[in-house]
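User: Show me a protein chain along with its predicted structure.
Assistant: Here is one chain, sequence first, then structure tokens.
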Amino acid sequence: VAEGSDIVSVLVLSGETKKEELKNYSTQPDIMVDNIGLLTNLLDKM
């Protein structure tokens, strides 16, 4: 959804997608975190 726009894409790996599966996708996220807590920590530092 974020591809081609000014939106940063985020993949949170707490769902069905596994890190190993990313190599099979042509579109890659800008940011990838293992859980939503890590994302909030990252955003707090920005």
